[in-house]
Design a protein that fits this description.
This protein is α/β, with parallel strands linked by helices. It is built from 16 helices and 16 strands.
């Protein structure tokens, strides 16, 4: 305790105490720096496992360069360790740890995943992958009684051996996550399908037990609803998704990763396919990376909000709502193409308020933003060329709200929906429109809902049952939307591209059926667009096609 008689003694002691304190602070700082350095030296290990859409089936390394956001992703990543066993009868195996690179000319999700992770964290990473097409969780991957290709013991041995090699080499590591994408084949077995949720929970528990990692985090990829099976086997795919969500929902260390919005390979014939293909695999890996980065608090958020409201107070705004599927979303239209060929569409236009909920809710604007090419995976939709065409006509009093899900079909948009209840969009769509109107009014503007701009579902044109019912679904959507939005005369501008030409579907005249629905409604305009720029693939429009679509839509606006 300080006493008046000891002032001189304390005065002499103060400099000494300061030195001790400063030295201690330096030591703490040095220790913190050492701890940080040690942490950065720990290799993060990620396990990838599953069936064909984890393998990367129907992808090609040579196609990577066709997709501008991912150019260069087919090259080896020498700073990422890779250990793998891929395939069923004919397996491709690494000899210990290799540098991460495509295997057998196939693009797996690990390639884009690793690119994004190494860009965002300072620590080294390593990937262990075991996957084989056509395998079951109920059989091949069953931890308790594996059957068939006995994938569980195979994968467990690979992971254990790979981790031991790191230990023997003196590499400090931590297993950060287990990326799982599987389930399509279980839906063909009634017992496996019914037990999928229970089996997946057991799968989690056994991996944690067998690796001695009670806190191991699992990232479970959604089965893609855009594929043939997502349409043709809708009830069965839904049953698997229910099982997946049950397992994830009852496990605090598991996360469900949506993937239905990724690109899907365009097949021959009607164009539909079973696999993601090259583009989808690259986006598939991005989804896993984003899920992991969010878990560790490293996900980047871009604030694009409008800084200055572009409309005069109490002025009237025409609101156009863009809605639809793959091409209204802009699945294969890339910002990088605009840089090279159409820089005029790159500008961020603060004179137009833009709000969006796309990719089935996976990419949502932060309120109202300046209009820009702001899609997921560096994509954009017809909104950019639509807006520019409208401005060229002297229109500057409008806002755009966009609601799309590229993994949806037209029955998902109907008021009744389908048996796959989690895929129903109608209620969300109506709420989005009402919310957009309300927010504009709260800004002090009068709002006219000037039209719903809907592009007919592309996938629906390619499968007989969907093609046959598409017109009826469209009528249900239009009719009930006017009731629920309390606008009986609401204008609908429906656009349609040429449907698939194939002997399986040619006898179903979907063009005529949709025309009959639209022509019978004085407030619905049908724009059947035939003169698109030459397209490389069926169903899905590229950059030039999307720009053309937006211009064509604008031409019909009254």
């Amino acid at each position: 305790m300080f006493q008046p008689g000891n002032v001189a003694c304390y005065a002499k002691a103060i400099p000494f105490l300061l030195v001790v304190l400063l030295l201690g602070m330096q030591r703490v700082a040095a220790d913190d720096g050492q701890e940080q350095s040690d942490e950065e030296a720990v290799t993060r290990v990620f396990i990838f496992a599953g069936q064909s859409n984890m393998v990367g089936s129907d992808s090609k390394v040579s196609d990577v360069e066709r997709f501008p956001p991912f150019r260069g992703y087919g090259q080896p990543q020498t700073d990422v360790k890779f250990s793998y066993c891929i395939g069923r009868e004919n397996k491709f195996r690494s000899d210990g740890w290799d540098a991460l690179a495509p295997v057998n000319d196939v693009v797996g999700p690990e390639l884009s995943f690793a690119r994004l992770i190494t860009d965002q964290i300072d620590a080294p990473i390593a990937v262990i992958k075991c996957a084989a097409g056509g395998t079951h969780l109920g059989g091949d991957w069953n931890p308790d009684s594996p059957e068939g290709f006995k994938m569980y013991p195979l994968a467990l041995e690979l992971v254990r051996d790979s981790l031991k090699q790191l230990t023997d080499a003196g590499v400090k590591y931590r297993v950060e996550g287990f990326m799982w994408h599987q389930g399509e084949n279980d839906m063909f077995n009634e017992n496996y399908m019914a037990a999928y949720g229970k089996n997946l929970k057991r799968f989690f528990a056994c991996w944690r037990r067998d690796l001695g990692l009670p806190d191991l985090k699992f990232y479970v990829g959604e089965l893609c609803t855009k594929t043939i099976w997502g349409m043709d086997l809708r009830p069965r795919m839904y049953a698997i998704s229910v099982g997946q969500k049950f397992a994830v929902g009852s496990d605090s260390k598991a996360e469900y990763v949506p993937t239905s919005h990724v690109g899907v390979e365009i097949g021959s014939g009607v164009g539909l396919h079973y696999h993601y293909g090259t583009l989808g695999q690259l986006e598939h890996g991005v989804n896993y990376a984003n899920a992991y980065l969010k878990t560790i608090g490293k996900q980047k958020d871009i604030d694009r909000r409008l800084r200055v409201w572009p409309y005069a107070s109490k002025s009237k705004i025409k609101l156009y709502v863009l809605a639809g599927h793959r091409n209204m979303e802009g699945e294969r239209a890339f910002v990088q193409d605009l840089v090279a060929r159409h820089p005029e569409f790159l500008k961020s236009d603060a004179s137009i308020a833009y709000k969006y909920n796309v990719a089935g809710g996976q990419h949502v604007s932060n309120g109202w933003e300046p209009l820009s090419a702001a899609g997921l995976y560096d994509t954009f939709g017809p909104e950019v060329s639509f807006a520019m065409a409208m401005q060229a006509r002297g229109r500057d009093d409008f806002a755009i709200a966009k609601f799309t899900h590229s993994g949806s079909q037209m029955n998902d948009w109907t008021p009744e929906g389908s048996i796959a209840k989690s895929r129903n969009l109608y209620t969300q769509f109506i709420e989005f429109v009402n919310e957009s109107i309300r927010e504009l009014e709260e800004r002090g503007n009068e709002v006219e809902l000037a039209g719903i701009l809907y592009h007919v579902g592309e996938n629906d044109m390619s499968m007989p049952p969907y093609r046959r019912d598409a017109a009826g679904w469209l009528k249900e959507l239009i009719t009930q939307s006017r009731v629920d939005l309390k606008r009986p005369g609401l204008a609908w501008y429906v656009s349609q591209q040429p449907p698939t030409r194939n002997e399986r579907v040619d006898d179903i005249d979907v063009r005529k059926a949709i025309a009959e629905v639209c022509n019978a409604d004085e407030n619905t305009d049908l724009n059947f667009i035939t003169n698109f720029p030459v397209q490389d693939k069926q169903l899905v429009l590229d950059t030039e096609g999307i720009l053309f679509l937006g211009e064509c839509i604008a031409e019909r606006i009254k």
